[in-house]
Sequence to fold (852 residues):
Amino acid sequence: MSSARPIYFLSDYGLDDDFVGLCKGVMLGIAPEATVIDLTHEVPGFGVEAGAEILEHATHYMSKNAVYLAVVDPGVGTERRALALLSADGAFLIGPDNGLLVPAVESLGGITCAVSLTNADYHIRPVSSTFHGRDIFAPAAAHLAVGLDHTLLGEVVDPASLVRVEPFGMEKEGTNTIVATITSVDRYGNARLSAPVEEVSLSFGALLKVEAGEDGDMLVRYVETFGHSKIGDLILVPDSHRRLSLSMNKGNACRALGLRIGNQVRLTLLENHSERHVGRDAEF
Amino acid sequence: MSSARPIYFLSDYGLDDDFVGLCKGVMLGIAPEATVIDLTHEVPGFGVEAGAEILEHATHYMSKNAVYLAVVDPGVGTERRALALLSADGAFLIGPDNGLLVPAVESLGGITCAVSLTNADYHIRPVSSTFHGRDIFAPAAAHLAVGLDHTLLGEVVDPASLVRVEPFGMEKEGTNTIVATITSVDRYGNARLSAPVEEVSLSFGALLKVEAGEDGDMLVRYVETFGHSKIGDLILVPDSHRRLSLSMNKGNACRALGLRIGNQVRLTLLENHSERHVGRDAEF
Amino acid sequence: MSSARPIYFLSDYGLDDDFVGLCKGVMLGIAPEATVIDLTHEVPGFGVEAGAEILEHATHYMSKNAVYLAVVDPGVGTERRALALLSADGAFLIGPDNGLLVPAVESLGGITCAVSLTNADYHIRPVSSTFHGRDIFAPAAAHLAVGLDHTLLGEVVDPASLVRVEPFGMEKEGTNTIVATITSVDRYGNARLSAPVEEVSLSFGALLKVEAGEDGDMLVRYVETFGHSKIGDLILVPDSHRRLSLSMNKGNACRALGLRIGNQVRLTLLENHSERHVGRDAEF
Fold:
């Protein structure tokens, strides 16, 4: 078995260019035994909050000895710091100091040590002003994967000094209404809402009014799976990240309703504990 | 050399989300030495037949000790079974019981043992109702890659009970006409037809009438390669899956003719054994 | 540590089909220990020059013992040769004889030996007329990765006989004007110009007139990073390939200006050594 730590790589680089390949080539040169797994490279452009959510979610499924390399970095070339974080659980997280790493490291037990990647001995030189993924972050991740002492990468900094971002949240209005944000849309057109399933007390079959997009109100059922709805039904389901998802059985909910990432969705609970099937509202 | 079996991964998850990355992370945790190769993650959405064709084709090129992980799963969250199949050739195939695995396992010698993946000890829990790739299929593939006895994954089931799908076929009309289906369209706009080259007795240079799309009839030549046609020529060529492909030299045949996956194409043989070059018909 | 050479894979196959997966499966069968890294599979269709530039750039970051597998091959199925090149630095490069490999091998010290891949013992048979990546190039790369003597792959040929392509260049007009070509556009809309930063003597803050697209003249500053401009500013920056890039801070320069790969851009130097910030011209 390889003695190198696995590297989990998330970015907004996409796969149309050679950005990801160059980062991997740099890592392979430093850590030939490390396995690199792509979490995703399609974090919506400059989407620090979206990237932070995906990275935090991934920590629940990845090896404990992981190195997370995360690059969503609209501030590249400015004074923002480049970081390596050691979590209490023993994982490393590498990326810009813009909040991207914070929810993930908190999920991994919190920050044991934070280092600013200022030691040029571990940079690829000349350091580009636009591509720190290749020149600063990837080499740091690879060195950590093969056992370098993280304090050699630069100066230890105070964890309290790290930039944090407000994670996507939801608001409650009274006792039966929540307002959530669409945090991502997958290829099937399912809209992930910023509402964790655990924080809403819905029973399967619950009936809700949905206000979203330009199409007025709709009625939806909260169901356990697509299999509990009919083709074309608009539904709420718990998704793979344990969030509420606004979905359409065999259809594309976002296209049908004109919804996008960042849109607000208001959900009003009309009826809980019901199993009766209700289709789409007539006015929809 | 690694003692783990290689894992070949096919799905319709796309690469825009973290679905594939999460499945790989789960597999790496169980089978750190296994190499995972992406066959493709762009099987057209819910395309069980298309996925089955791609998977079957791949079996001709992959290692004998392969583990195939295939997830095109419109029935996720319903009662459809999750399967692991052992082929007579010694490969494993993991995926939903919807026909996706059947042509591939038949190409690998047929089913020696079929297991329904009901043993929760080998699931990632809690099992999501929408993402069995991560929670049921990927862990099963990884356990098999590192040598787990497949009968531990659940209950042995009768191979005759498996769901089968009708593979894309072609019909003959009289002695000189076939009707085939467009089973896939590649990035260059080449339309793969459901007609295996071996089952049509065309000689290179044969002249055919094509009826497809909205543009009336066209004449095409069956040629060995693009190099045997002129730029802009519409041609039939044997493609990399040994199927007839309707193609345009340096052009995009599907865009030009308004063709899509699932469209029917009627081919009538006008002239065999001819080498004379005929361009596109005047009415096209 | 693996004794196999790493394989760096570049193509125009895209990831929507199974082309890349099949090539990797073939390589894994021959060289189970080799690590394959995707440089990119989105070289613009039939873009031999663009692929050559990406491949050459990558050589500056990859391991010295690399095997480069590069397939941008509009001539597949014609008489063009299939090549393996050994560079003076000890790397191998595999691909079609159409100029794709030449800038890279020159960057790696020049050609020590060139072999035409004519030995059918190292082909996957039957050899498809449209998919030499799977049937000829990938197996050659894998055999070289695990130490096969390259002269066994076919006939040694004269390096002087190789097809070369004119790399993207730039023209000088008088002392203060250059005309460059847009060689690629990344996902953020940045236009890479065929002008190497080293060959233009610009100081940061220099003011230039840009003529490109349909929008008449614009004024831009040459800045070190995006951080030295304001949101919405059109700028010139040195990009990750050490080329001039025409970019828009937090915007999409190519969409804004209607620019595409292949367009010509004329740059006239108005003012050097200035740090004064000038925004976009009023007429733009």
In short: Residues 274-284 of chain B have pLDDT under 50 and may be disordered. The longest helix of chain B spans residues 132-145. Chain B has two domains: 7-161, 170-271. Chain B touches chain C at residues 1-2, 6, 8, 10, 15, 35, 37-42, 54, 57-58, 61-63, 184, 186-188, 224-228, 237-240, 245, 250 (CB under 8 Å).
